[in-house]
Amino acid sequence: MDTMRERFITTASHLLDDDPRLAVVLAEISRDGFDRAERTHPDRVINVGIREQLLIGAGAGLALTGMRPIIHTFAPFLVERPFEQVKLDFGHQGVSGVLVSAGGSYDWPAAGITHMAPGDVALMDTLDGWTVQVPGHPDEAETLLREAAAGEGRVYLRLSLQQNERARPVGAGSGSTPVREGSQGVVIAVGPMLDNVLAATDGLDVTVLYATTVRPFDAAGLRRAVGARETADAVIVEPYLSGTSTGVVNDALADVPHRVLGLGVGRAELRRYGQMDEQIAAHGLDPRGLRERIGGFLNS
Q1: Residue 101: in which H helix or E strand, if any?
Q2: What is residue 95's DSSP assignment?
Q3: 69-121 per-position pLDDT tens digit
């Protein structure tokens, strides 16, 4: 199976062939993958070098001319380092584009914390008007990228090396989809966390929802999953900073007595980096860690 990042490069290159409105803006990362596209469309594949603030500024400038920019680099260099440019060059100027990150929270542990961005979605939450997509499979990433490229809004597409065994239906209007149904609580698995959540909740009487669009949050889908119960227990498992979405889950359940548990990447830096699977286990996001915490929450 290819990775989401590989699928992004292939798909974006084909989209450039089909839509003259599109441009890809890079900051060295993934440049080799766009070799053919750069030769074919030298005026629409732009590499600004390791200048991430310029990366965002150049993309927003293209948007001001009516282009649809697809801007790509690792998550910390796309959201954290040039955050002011994302806020001002896109938000203040009222233009749109597609931000596509790679690396996520723990994809390349050997590179250290400089290449990890568990706080990216929380940062994007402070801005208005961004749709945030977190696919769990390369097929889902391709569908969401094609929709974002053809659309008009501001989209942050968060790709990761961690991915699920098989793709699920995603796309406009799909919201969160039930994968398993139960009566003792609702567990929301975001993007690449689904397989681990399904393994962790095997044998538990819970509903499992799968979500790739995390902003706007599918509050109606969660309310449907809770149904007519007088109280609700909800757990959300995210591949980024723990608790990022507990606020929107609380808002969705405001009219029913409820408890919410947010599981994700911890705030403490893990300085013995190891491999990706070891990072996932260290954050308690492997099936064993999730089982202990989800089971403990539901039984307390």
Answers
A1: strand 98-102
A2: -
A3: 999 999 999 999 999 999 999 999 999 999 999 999 999 998 989 999 999 99
- Write the pLDDT tens digit of every residue in 8-48: 999 999 999 999 999 999 999 999 999 999 999 999 999 99
Please, what's the largest Cα pairwise distance for the chain? 61
In 3D space, the residue among 34, 32, 172 whose CA is nearest the CA of residue 23 turns out to be 34
Distance CA 145, CA 124 (A): 18
CB-based burial label for 300 (10 Å; 0-12, 13-18, 19+): exposed
Measured between alpha carbons, how far is 104 from 221 in angstroms, rounded to an integer? 26
With a CB cutoff of 8 Å and minimum separation 6, the contacts of 216 are 131
Q: For the chain, how big is the Rg over CA atoms in Å?
A: 19
CA–CA distance, 267 with 271 (Å, rounded to integer):
12
CA angle 5, 30, 155 (to 5 degrees): 55
